[in-house]
Amino acid sequence: MASSYPTFNLSEKLSVEQVNFFNQHGFIHFKNFINNDTVTSIVQASKEVESAWIDADVKKINGVPIKYGKDLDGKKIVQRFAFINQHHKALSGLLLDPRLSALLPLAGEGSRLGSEEKDGMVFNHYINGPESSFTKMGWHTDGLRDIFYGGKLHPMLNVGIHLTSQKKENGGLRIIPGTHKQSIYQMLFRKKYFLDNNADRSEISVLPEAGDLTIHDGRLWHRVAESSIRGEESRRRVIYIPIIAGKYAPKNENSPTVFYQRFAGIVK
Questions:
Q1: Planar angle of CA 148, 153, 155, nearest 5 degrees
Q2: CA distance 171 to 134
Q3: Cross-strand partners of 242
Q4: Quick one: which of 95, 99, 151, 157 could link to 243 by a disulfide (CB 3.0–4.6 Å)?
Q5: What does pTM read for this prediction?
């Protein structure tokens, strides 16, 4: 699986083969979840939210810091939106697709889309330019948050809806398959969280086309590799929505910024 992996089609019920593949490897890739027209409308919606947030000088949404950067022309842009589903109907409507409900059993009984929890629907906009502040993200697992706060380690899956086609040189998601089954010790100490962005001999590149959907277990070791291409060809947009199990914990405008997000500057 170092260089390639099978892809699937998503319907309103997962097949046994799909469930088994995900359980073994901790990720799965579905083709053609949305069409090109929908991709275009979602990107346009993000630009409308971006314009409103820049005009209002929004710093946080529900306690989550918003990451700003510069486009290739030096214009200010939002590079990481949090809870964007709460700010545009085109994005909240995307969550109503019944095929997303088919993914919930992968996280176990009582799982749900985290549209009001964690960081909600996150919209990432990567661009490798001279003034970009968001080009890569070092190795990490999402399970660290539960461990840090002394809570039970619940499954948290990341559903990615990809709005840009990419090749390996575009950077993007790298995962180490099977590490969702690792010990707590390995989850804590296998990598230097966020600081280590070096390639791992066991990693694979997730290479979607625009409109594809991927899902990976947050307990996997994963990173976002920097594009080796600069300029317009490096532009990449992707939405992430969490699937959560455990106690319902919605956020609102009065929610505090959690500890680890105070150090967001280490994430480039």
A1: 130
A2: 12
A3: 158
A4: 157
A5: 0.90
Give the pair of three-digit tokens for residue 183. Answer: 């010990």
Of 9-18, 45-54, 126-135, which gets the smallest average pLDDT? 126-135
Instruction: Identify the band that residue 267 occupies on the pLDDT scale cut at 50, 70 and 90.
Output: very low
Query: Which strand ranges, in their side-by-side order, compose the sheet holding 172-175?
Result: 137-140, 222-225, 172-175, 204-205
| Residues in the chain, total | 268
* Tokens 């939405």 sit on residue: 239
CA distances from 268 to 137, 197, 226 (A): 6, 11, 9
pLDDT digits (tens, 9 = 90+) for 78-134: 999 999 999 999 999 999 999 999 999 999 888 999 999 999 999 999 998 888 777
Burial 164-184, CB ≥16 within 10 A → b, else e? bebeeebbbbbbbbbbbebee
CATH of domain 16-266: 2.60.120.620
Q: Domain extents for the chain?
A: 16-266
Residue 28 has pLDDT above 80, yes or no: yes
Segment 191-211, tens digit of pLDDT: 888 889 899 999 999 999 999
